[in-house]
Amino acid sequence: MPQNPYLNVLLTALLTVVFILVSSILLASLAWLLARLFRQTAREQQNAFAGYLFAAPWITGFLIFVLVPLGFSLYWSFTDYRVTASAPPQWVGLENYRQLLLADDGFRASLLNTLYLTVLGLPLQMVVALLLAVLLNQKMRGERVFRMAFYLPVILGFNTAVLLIWRLMLNTGTGIINQLWRAAYQIPGVSELLRGIIYVQEVSAAFFLGLNNRSFNLMYKVIEAGFPEVNRVPLWVQSPLWSKMSVILLMVWGCGAMMLIFIAGLNNIPKELHEAAEVDGASPAQRFWKITLPLLTPYIFYNLVVGMISTLQIFEPIFVLYRDNQPLLSSAISMVYYLWQKSFSHFEIGYGAAISWVILVIILSVTLVQFALQNRWVHYDIY
Amino acid sequence: MRVKHLLHILQRVTLYLLLTAATVAMSFPLFWMISSSFKTIQETNSPGIVWIPRQPTLDAYISIFQNVNFLRAYFNSVFVVTLAMAGTLISIAAVAYAFSRLNWPGRNLVFFLMLSTMMIPPQALIVPQYVFFNRLGWVGTFNPIVIPGYFAGGAAMIFLLRQAMAQIPKELDEAAFIDGANHIQIWWEVILPLSKAPLATIATFLFVGQWNNLLTPLMYLQTVDLYTLPIFTATLYNINQTVQPWPTIMTAAVLTTVPLIVLFFFAQRYILDSVVISGLKG
Hints:
The complex is a heterodimer of chains A (383) and B (282). Chain A is 76% helix and 1% strand. Chain A has 17 helices and 2 strands. Chain A has helices at 5-37, 42-76, 95-103, 105-136, 143-156, 160-169, 176-184, 190-213, 217-225, 243-253, 256-267, 271-279, 284-312, 316-322, 326-332, 335-345, 349-377; strands at 79-80, 90-91. A two-stranded antiparallel sheet of chain A has the order 1-2. Chain B has 282 residues and is mostly helical.
């Protein structure tokens, strides 16, 4: 292989294409041979050949990059295996899992933090997405422009550069968000609201951190300090009480993908239903709760499932905002961040494999539970 | 009647006000990024609000264009994303063709397998993949970022394209088949030209995914000369510095987001429609 990294990857890509072509033809020939052995018609033999020829890239990729790695990682999760040491994996049975689930405070913290984002951030994200979708569904001029503006954050996504913009805006002293927050104190009546928000958020975050540390001293302290004074500002990326809230803010900003799904759902609601209800004298609020929301449940379900899977896998915002920030990291670290830390900073492959299996099982079971519960609240019957 | 009309106008005005407020809030980070990139360090750290810099300075732009590491990272990103997209797009198009236009034994089983891989978080695979690529001697090369896509990486993308291809009338392939075309010709000359809109959508998503990708490059590209943009930008912000070079960071952010915004501007009508239509109707 050439030393030049660009030539190297070009050559490898070329070899990969050759490899895929050869393996596709081999797989397709095998399928054709089997179809022949089972005495199928010439047309069916041809179909088997063509089908496997075109599907082969995915099938070989699945074997190489999904199935085999999953098998290996399952095996390694029962071993002590470090990539730096040249020693082969040592079988330790369930030791990794025991350590991880019962004795690892770091993992506990990451699990609880991720749950916090899922329980608090995801509903907030969905409510904002639904609100925007309902506003956009009023059929007016310029809808497309608004839609674009709301979807753009999804495209920018969790790009490091975009996350750093947020880091700048969230600066405690000089960040624009807190500057506006301070300015808002001048408006009469808003002061109580802002202080109330700070109070509620700090007490609940302290409670959550208490769960994590198994001691609620911090929460008592926050409650003892009493209602925040005027001019207090959120300590976004400075205090453990606020570190997760900053991530939630980012999640809400990126709600455009969910909004698009909700718009699709709103478009599918038959107009006649609303018109009939209006004739019968139903108020807009009644129509929303009795018609729109029940008919939207399949879409809410979809967003909930997809949103939960992606929230449980959150990594980039926490990495960019809190990497190297030792005092804050433990209050914000997510499961995937912890996995990354163990595997690639500490090179504990066996332990990392165990973490990834725990994450996998958590995601699968949460998804299955949601599918099991959907009959209770999702209405498909109207379609 | 008059009152009702007035009420209607009032409703519209409120609606537009709300939407405009939401738009301002959602696009504010972009405005702030652009504005900050023209500020001095003193202005970005000043205790007062500087909406628009009084004397816009191009210093940050000049210094970042003289930064060899930034230019190399930019080139690396463009190079890696282009190479990865080319292979991924073609292989996805081939696999989607197999799932939508061809009838072969085992198709439903393979399709079901493919859909179920969507539930596996990619992070569950990164550890064994790392060991595998390490054995191949691929750590410290672009290969682990580019090559996996060539095997039709991305079940969601295959699904999206399959849904679109399934809607093309069957008679087209049959007519071509009778005229003596083979499957490769039908795929390339009949089906792909008819799937331009979903292909554009997928290309956009693939571009965005690769351009924003941080985790894999972080694992495999361990030296400065291989850094892609996201890693390079992440190194600009360093918690150990007392004063962050915000104008420089924001300039890097502007240059990173410009391709995304331009691409979105051109592809938005495909994306906004095809996500809405094929995103759900299975």
